[in-house]
Amino acid sequence: MPIQIIAPAPFVDAGDGDDDDEGGVRLDVDNDGDVAMEGDAPSRKTSRHAGRIVTPGELVTDDPQWMRGHGTYLSTTADGSQSIVSSLAGTISKTNKLLSICALRFRYVPEIGDLVVGRILEVQTKRWRVDIAAPHSATLLLSSINLPGGILRKRTSTDELQIRTFFSEGDLLVAEVQTLNSDGQASLHTRSLKYGKLRNGVFLTVDAGMIRRMKSHVLTMPTSNGGGEVDIYLGVNGYIWIAKHTASLSDGAGDKGVSITRLEEEASEAIYSNVNEEISPETRAEISRIGCVIRALVKANIKIDEEMLNLGYEAALEEALQGYDWGSDTAAGKRIVDAALAKRRKT
User: Fold this and answer.
1) Residue 36 CB contacts under 8 Å (≥ 6 apart), including other chains
2) Do 216 and 296 lie in a common domain?
3) Who's near 245: CB < 8 A, 6+ residues apart?
4) CATH number at residue 55
5) Statement to judge: residues 98 and 234 lie in one domain
6) Given 59, 164, 206, 219, which residue has the most CB atoms within 10 angstroms?
């Protein structure tokens, strides 16, 4: 079957439009609503509208007063003039005199302090290779995890021989980005009671740009219908883990008068267990409902944060949707998203 290639839309010529167009990219109003200075005369050159989707190699503008930003490059024509051309598929973003392209889809770029959910790819000597949906796989050193007997004790050859008892291929974990190498490769650590191996839940994958950066990416959501509480790990890298809530060991430290270090020593064996706990059918149903809410939000291009999750879950309860796969139903998911957005506008 032959493939038909449709030609792109013609460039917008400001001279053929009305006076309010001003060269495709508005010069009188910036992205933040600021009014341009008096000396900024309207452009009458070939340009694209701000917010419009462009493809790689497509002309953004040939007006020399604009500066190129991320996702663009300069192209020189035969007559010696330069124009700004898009190198990505995305939307045009304008900040004062700077033009950038916001990619429609992109891979996660690690930053120090990010909470990520990853999967063990390979077990090496004194380290693990971890998939975090980045251009390079991350590394988790044996010295960067809690070990039985205390987090500060020296790593021995016995620990190296038993490295697979902590994490093996295919295991899921939640960790924090500790350092970045010169080539952008991330180094992780799990030296905290809230990090470690993941159990008792379900794994979801979304685009990294759909996770809104928040103060905390570990959420505990109370559910209805006898489901109890559910833990949600929103990895900045787009990997999400939804699981049955497990009480944090540090929660009862103050009541029992036990130090955090002592708790870590006693809990080390349980942290690396591969055995899932018993999960009631009610909890399983609510975990699935939350997963469907996340899929519905992603389909509607709504960024995921704590507020939208709570509003979407409330809307799903009001709809009384049954089953485990209604998130793939476009009509039902759209109703949930519309109801959640309406509630957010009221607040």
Assistant:
1) 27, 28, 29, 30
2) yes
3) 220, 228, 229, 230, 231
4) 2.40.50.100
5) no
6) 206
Pick the closest to residue 14 from 31, 27, 32, 33 (CA basis).
27
Query: How many angstroms from the chain centroid is the CA of residue 314?
Result: 23
Strands 67-68, 98-103: pairing is parallel
Residue 172, domain member (yes or no): yes
pTM score of the predicted model: 0.73
Residues 222 and 258 in one domain: no
The tokens of 13 are what?
Answer: 């010529």
Residue 6 lies in a domain: no
pLDDT tens by residue, the chain, 347 residues = 566 666 555 544 434 444 444 344 443 444 444 444 334 444 445 566 666 788 999 989 888 889 999 899 998 887 888 899 999 888 888 888 899 998 877 788 899 999 999 999 999 988 999 999 998 999 999 888 887 665 556 777 887 888 888 899 999 999 999 999 988 899 999 888 788 899 999 999 998 888 988 999 999 999 988 889 999 999 999 999 999 988 765 454 444 444 545 555 555 566 788 888 899 999 999 999 999 999 999 988 888 999 999 999 999 998 887 666 676 778 888 889 999 999 898 87
- Identify whether residues 124 and 232 lie together within a single domain: no
Q: How far is CA 139 from CA 177, 186, 188, 259, in A?
A: 10, 6, 6, 30
Residue 121 domain-assigned (yes or no): yes
